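Why run this: before we spend reagent on co-expression, it is cheaper to look at a predicted model of the complex and decide which construct boundaries make sense. The entries below are exactly what would go into the expression plan.
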Amino acid sequence: MSLAAARPAAALAGAGFRRWSTYRQAAVAGVFVNTVFGVIKLSILLAVADSAGGTVAGYDRVGLSTYAWMSQGLIAVVVIFAWTELADRIRTGDIAVDLARPVDLQLAWLAADLGRALWGLLSRAIVPILFGAALFGFRVPGDAAALLLLPVSITLAVVVSFACRFMVNLAAFWITEVRGPVTFYILVAGLLGGHLIPVQLFPSWLQAVAYATPFPAIMQWPIDLVTGQASGWAALGLVCAQLGWAVALLALGRVVLRRATRRLVVQGG
Amino acid sequence: MADPRVLEPAAGTVAGPTVAGAYGALVRSRIAAQASYRSSFALDIAAQVLIGLVEFAEVYVVFSQVEKLGGFSFAEVTLIFGLATAGFGLADLVVGHVDRLPYYVRTGQLDAFLLRPLSALGQLVTSDFSLRRLGRVVVSLVLLAVALTAVDIEWTPARVVLLLVTPLIGAVIFGAVFVATSAVGFWLVEGTEFTNAFTYGGNYLSSFPFTVFGSVVRRTFTFVIPIAFVAYLPALALLGREDPLGLPGWLSWSAGPVALLSCCAAGLVWRVGLRHYTGAGS
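The model came back. Tokens follow.
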């Protein structure tokens, strides 16, 4: 991105951060719900580990706790839940105004989303992780490479997640109500991304399906850097794969957008 | 701003058939509205079927790793899962959107409800009858049927009745949880996620045997928010098993009265919330 494009992007990211940071009550409620779900998720996983004799698929009890709280913390950062803002603007026709602006539509939304992600990280990720760490244990990675790569990995996870959500929202150019596709996406991405249960616990056929999709790049891979499921060169490999998905999906999103805008008819003068 | 205390009793003064007729017309219009966007509706239903399957995928993945979870077999957990999601699915279908109360407050729609001679809760419930959620109920019933062929149940008339009423009672309990926790929206305008912790969290929790949870979670979701009565305890009664954690056996048969109590409690919380409500605007 050139320097001229970087300034509006930074401004949009700042606006995204400030916009979401006005919802303080929602952040508290969000921390609460993520913590409750974290306890339920971890209880089930620990029962699995108990039945399996202490460890399961390379996770011990502390490993499972680390996984559960990282995944709960990342929810608000990578947004695996419904996001239909873009679809709403397409449905109402506001998208015509967005397209007329002198900034790239996709990158402008991406910048705002990165700002939102930073607010999500500060407001909703840290408390559940600290709570979980205090009550159930947390493994801080000893691997320096993984630790250094973690911020990059989380950022790329946001980009991959955004690129997917952007495309799902573009469905609104073709159908009126996108709730069905959005719900569909959330579920498949949540399951295959390793949000409910670590991908390593899947039976091998389902693991193969998951790794053929970009979804582990959104949730499982950043967590793998923390739990130590990936370290050293393997960690670098995951981050490179994330970068590959991010570039490919953003490019695909632009192709879909171009096709979609050809269908757009703006009424009025 | 209208005073809800003045308007609320008016609902009761309208003759019964008229009230029923009004609600009937509301529900019919919602159904017609949803079914009119056919392709979206079909995708919605498909998504709901998928929700059911994806939720069950977690159980499936768990049992690809272990033979028993918290002392229960795959078939037994599937039975619990089927009962729980059937109950939740029905509740979600009828009252699931009540958690959007903050949205109704913010947009002033609640004020419009309060001006009409029907109860605010009744109008809120009938404002979005989510037919698409039938997709999820169907999945849970299929899973329930499959589980019933695989578990060992000594059938008695009492158990047959218990099996048939459990999804309905579960729906009533979840419905009460939806209404009670949504009433938080009268105080917190951004409280939807708080509500979700108990509704969706309750659904998640109810699909697994309670033996996997720690004592704080277990007690809270048995005695404070009676989620254990939705599926886990009735499943124990169906299977003829004692609670491994020592709850008395009669509790497994008590979901009905518990549901009734929950409704009273939810009604009370809603009433208190509505009284507290003073309008979103000037």
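The mean pLDDT of chain A is 90. Chain A touches chain B through 40 residues (CB under 8 Å). Bring this page to Monday's planning discussion.
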